[in-house]
Amino acid sequence: MSKEKETTRVSHLPEHGPLDANGREILLSLKNVDITFGKGDDAVRAVKNASFDIYKGETFSLVGESGSGKTTIGRAVIRVNPCAAGEIQYKGVRISGKTTRSLDREVIRNIQMVFQDPAASLNERATVDYIISEGLYNFHLFKNEEDRVRKVENIINEVGLLPEHLTRYPHEFSGGQRQRIGLARAMVMEPELVIADEPISALDVSIRAQVLNLLKKFQKERDVTYLFIAHDLSIVRFISDRIGVIYKGDIVEIAEAEELFNFPLHPYTRSLISAIPIPDPILEKNKVLFTYDPSVHDYSEDKPELVDIGNNHFVYGNKKEIEEYKATRARGEKVKSITILDPNAPRSEQPEQKVEESHEPILDTPLHDTGNKWYAILSFFLPILGLIAAGVFRHYNHIRNFKACRKGAVAGLITIAVVIAFFALMLLLAVL
């Protein structure tokens, strides 16, 4: 019997997860996870070979720019996005792919998510009381109606709202209040792991600190573990125990918070840190950003991998780069990501910042290259014009439109050929 089949038959979660070499309990583990959307030519590999562990009681933050795959990983943990390869383990039990019904219910009960948009994630037709109680109803987590009301009122008080708010609807609240409702909905289930998907990005600056303090309060009181997804490194530094940096689906660096900020070894991490705004307007005006250029990496022969260089610090690179990262870290000198120019220095003495054109393939794709189905339909009925249009689209790098026109034109020509052959055969039979 294969290991996969044995894991699939597990019907309950163990009380504790496995321990690592340092004796820390591993609550969640991603092992070589690939997540792909679409099929064939349209397939997009959103997450590539992602591997990391989250320890019980810690806050592990996943940071990166928009579209890097942060939310995709978070949604894969709650089994919304399926894994194309690899596996996700919770307390040492595989939870990705097919699982038993009893295990599925335990995982839902133990892993909750706080979504980015506090308005879209709440049912506008339900009262706050029902929104918070829905999980209690589904899992029968109350003895009687009095017990349910007590639990709901306790959690609504803990997130800073009042019991009279329970009879209202989400549209009657501000963004910060709606996010508190979403947090109460998750915490009333008493989960062990909470995935916070940019829970403060849609909130005012004055409200952000309150929500972050709420998260830390729940962690301290209930021993909750967080997978905190964000793109603002200044906030991540405040709340995180460890930080993982992701770039276009690749985990490029993982380290403890202070270790990462003191020794950002991967150039992409340095570029993210340099983008953190400085409160002083004079310093911010004279700041020189560190720009990440992916073309500096040569992975044509020596393929990169995520390697532990010591100090529980993982960096993504090939053998040559890893040796350089190890040497930099061994020197123990803090890596400088931000350069402040002297505002009083003459302009001629200030170093010129070299700006290079980006050669990212995604930026080379034209905006209106959508591959609309109407191109294929029109090319089917007018195949000659379709082939001409395909040539024009190819010339201007509209690859999707080119493929749509070519596909329609080829199908149209084949259809015409079949019709002509059919009538020719009928004519031949009539003559004979």
- Largest sheet data: 8 strands, mixed
Average pLDDT confidence is 86
Task: Give me the strand/helix succession.
Answer: HEEEHEEHEHHHEHEHEEHHHEEEHEHHHH
**What is the helix content?**
40-55%
CATH topology of the largest domain: Rossmann fold
Provide the number of structural domains: 3
CATH hierarchy: architecture of the largest domain: 3-Layer(aba) Sandwich
The top-level CATH class of the largest domain is Alpha Beta
Strand order of the largest sheet: 6-7-8-3-9-10-13-12
Count the DSSP helices.
16
Cα-based radius of gyration, to the nearest Å: 27 Å
Uncertain segments are 1-8, 349-363
Give the DSSP E fraction (strand runs of 2 or more residues): 15-25%
Shape: globular
CA-CA gap between termini: 67 Å
The CATH superfamily name of the largest domain is P-loop containing nucleotide triphosphate hydrolases
Backbone structural class: alpha/beta
Got a strand count? 14
